[in-house]
Amino acid sequence: MKGKIKQIQQYLSSRSIDAAFLTSTENVCYTTGFRSNPHERWLAVFVPQTGESTLICPGMEEEEARHAGWEYRIIGYSDTENPIQLLHTLLQTKNMAVSSLAIESSHLTVDRLNLLKESFGSFDIHSIDQQMNDLRVVKSQDELVLLRKAAELADFAIETACSELAEGKTELEILAAIEFELKRKGITEMSFSTMVLTGKNAASPHGNPGLNKIKRGDLVLFDLGVVYQGYCSDITRTVAFGELSKEQIKIYETVLAAELKALEMVKPGVKASDLDLAARKVIQDAGYGDFFPHRLGHGLGLNVHEYPSITSDSDFILKEGMTFTIEPGIYVPNIAGVRIEDDVLVTENGYETLTKFPKTLQYY
Amino acid sequence: MKGKIKQIQQYLSSRSIDAAFLTSTENVCYTTGFRSNPHERWLAVFVPQTGESTLICPGMEEEEARHAGWEYRIIGYSDTENPIQLLHTLLQTKNMAVSSLAIESSHLTVDRLNLLKESFGSFDIHSIDQQMNDLRVVKSQDELVLLRKAAELADFAIETACSELAEGKTELEILAAIEFELKRKGITEMSFSTMVLTGKNAASPHGNPGLNKIKRGDLVLFDLGVVYQGYCSDITRTVAFGELSKEQIKIYETVLAAELKALEMVKPGVKASDLDLAARKVIQDAGYGDFFPHRLGHGLGLNVHEYPSITSDSDFILKEGMTFTIEPGIYVPNIAGVRIEDDVLVTENGYETLTKFPKTLQYY
After folding, report:
1. Which residue range forms the structural domain that includes residue A20?
2. By the CB < 8 Å criterion, does A67 face chain B?
3. Rounded to the nearest 5 degrees, what angle is found at the Cα of B211, between the Cα atoms of B327 and B181?
4. Separation in Å, CA of A181 to nearest CA in chain B
5. A321, B89, B188, B353: which is deepest, by most CB within 10 A?
6. What CATH number corresponds to the domain at position A82?
7. Nearest-CB residue to B183 (from A39, A176, A206)
8. A46 and A93: one domain?
């Protein structure tokens, strides 16, 4: 926590910016250790170029923030107080003026920027978004413990899903069973809406889980993730229910070959775009180039989709300690929809997959 | 849909604003009928003071938007296109300049406002937030059909919750069962994180569902809501598991009296603040004034918390056709946490509760 605040202060110093004002749940959690959903209330961290940082949170959450490990100042406000005005008053007592401020410009709303201006007067506005992305891209050992646990729970969810497969069951019934079992393990928050898609529904780019029933000869696609103490996992597996056609199998094997191709290239120094292009080439060479319409993957951490995006035109270079997904897919309408996705950690000389559920075609 | 666009255009005309640019999922749904979660992509409706409106959405969602009933122009963009630039180009071909624009200032981010400025050059910025609140506060018959259905499903969820109560079961197990049964009915989206809180946990303002076990003599609090075709419900019931103490019963009866007191005052023309004050007085008179720390309720519709806020200092006057919650509560640490919440429709001469689960103290 201290190290993270210090890194932000070094950045502010290098750019001669007076202070940073972080407002997204994820960046507040990253810098303070305190994770909270403020809904319509203010949650923010004010980091001056030098001196003590201040967490702004609802008064009734102060204790929790302390408990989470935040050692610096807290402005805990009531619903009748204006927390920005409280911050301004505090800074005045410290004789600190804010003539330049780095905000999360992709998160702060126009209204909130105006409220800041009302209290602080005019100031130069900088965006700290890319800097926060750069800081967060390489994970600490503490973060990796949580990411591993989140991935382990995702594996468990896929196991549960597979054990629930039965002829005539609906996608929603299986989805319900997955989340039921996760809640029994204390997990109430998913990284995103769980997907259980079968047959034609998995082959459609618009697929959403519904009352479609599992039937023999279908491929069933599961895409899900859990949030564990703020950190996200994201796994996709596609399995066979009964015997498949030759084309279904060919599509599955092509996606798997693409995923493995990209995976085995992973190590520090490799261009993210090369992974995407290599996986894409495997799919193109098999004749399915038109049926892989999305990027290869994305960064993973406090957000389920975070920096960097793993695309064919990304200029990002892989770094040791970063975590991201690899998730090629082929979707041929009325034939098959297959995606295979792992959470991947870049290690000193290569990679480790955090998600471990088998990828050879599983039959149920 | 046409009527709503027309109302926005009348507003723009009355204020001499060139156009409105709506960006929240809820306001886009309200004006177009099309509900979509764009994640990091753009979803917006551009409404000029006169002439045809334009929906901006990812290209692969165009068909769905048509299906939802949107009859006007659509800009369906690909991931490599800049939708704002596409809109700007379109307006240029129509010889339309934008010198003033009404935005959702509580939703639009600083980055996105900058992107609008990059394409459109400088323009006067107005906020359309309050106008959209005013439009949305009174529900149409079509909206009421969905709100009633959402409330009916909330009642079903409470019934499920109560039928699951058993000594030694954890809060999370009951929560899991509630959402499992809802999924079997096709409901995958809750209005907010479901709350199942028992005993001391219900009496704490920080309560979150966990591994606390149901035991005899506990009050159990359920607070939940479902999203049905975009519309939200929000219900709270507190029930007895086994015999209660006199004080627990007194607290329950006080909350119920406060809720009924506010309810029976509901009709068009009444001040929202009077409802809050009347319920608060019942609780104060019973000696629990310090233990009702929140507002009486909030508007309900496409958002689970929307305009107006039902507080002691609200100057809002109730209108026929509006829907909101009434939810007094008393939380005495280590003794009892009780809240009772209904979804209420203001009718011509009074009110109707959309949530129907019994409120006399239920014993299990």
Report:
1. 2-136
2. no
3. 65
4. 8
5. B188
6. 3.40.350.10
7. A176
8. yes
B221-257 confidence digits (pLDDT tens): 999 999 999 999 999 999 999 999 999 999 999 999 9
Using CB atoms within 10 A of its CB, is residue A128 exposed (0-12), middle (13-18) or buried (19+)? buried
Evaluate whether residue A364 is within a structural domain.
no
Residues A303 and A166 in one domain: yes
Residues B132 and B198 in one domain: no
Examine residue A106 and state whether it is found in any structural domain, yes or no. Answer: yes
Tokens of B20: 């409105």
Query: Judging by beta carbons within 10 Å of its beta carbon (0-12, 13-18, 19+), is residue A142 exposed, middle or buried?
Result: exposed
Closest CA–CA distance from residue B253 to any residue of chain A (Å): 27
pLDDT tens-digit profile of A9-61?
999 999 999 999 999 999 999 999 999 988 889 999 999 999 999 999 999 89
Residue A186 touches chain B, beta carbons under 8 Å:
yes
For residue A206 the two structure tokens come to: 């618009």
Q: Which of A87, A108, A136 is the last residue of a domain?
A: A136
If asked whether residues A149 and A31 sit together in one domain, one would say no
Residues of A with CB below 8 A from B183's CB? Answer: 172-173, 175-176, 179
* CA B254 – CA B260 distance, rounded (Å): 10
- Residue B73, classified by CB atoms within 10 Å of its CB into exposed (0-12), middle (13-18) or buried (19+), is middle
Question: Looking at the partner chain, which of B40, B188, B210 has a beta carbon nearest the beta carbon of A193?
Answer: B188
Q: Provide CB contacts within 8 A for B173, sequence distance 6+.
A: A183, A184, B164
Coil, strand or helix at A165: coil
Mean pLDDT by 10 residues, chain A (364 residues): 91 98 97 90 96 95 93 92 96 94 98 96 97 97 97 98 97 94 92 95 85 96 97 98 97 98 98 98 98 95 97 96 98 95 98 98 97
- Is-contact A236 A339, C-beta < 8 A? yes
Q: Of the candidates B76, B111, B136, which is a domain's last residue?
A: B136
3-state SS assignment for residue B234: coil
In this structure, chain A runs to a length of: 364
With respect to residue A361, please indicate whether it lies within any of the assigned structural domains. Answer: no
* A197 and A323 fall within a common domain: yes
Count of C-beta atoms within a 10 Å radius of residue B16 = 10
Complex ipTM value = 0.90
Question: Which residues have CB under 8 Å from A148's CB, separation 6+?
Answer: A354
* Amino acid letter, B283: I
Contact check, Cβ <8 Å, B106/A103:
no
- Whether residue B364 lies inside any domain: the answer is no
Q: Are residues B165 and B273 in the same domain?
A: yes
- What total number of domains does chain A contain? 2
Range 31-60 of B in CB contact (< 8 A) with A: 39-40, 60
B246 in reach of chain A (CB within 8 A):
no
Same domain? B124 vs B191: no
The answer, for B80 touching chain A at a CB cutoff of 8 Å, is: no
DSSP symbol at A362 = P
Determine the 3-state secondary structure of A64 from DSSP.
helix
Cα–Cα distance measured from residue A15 to residue A102, given in angstroms and rounded to the nearest whole number: 10
Taking CB atoms and an 8 Å cutoff, what residues of chain B touch A186? 172, 210-211
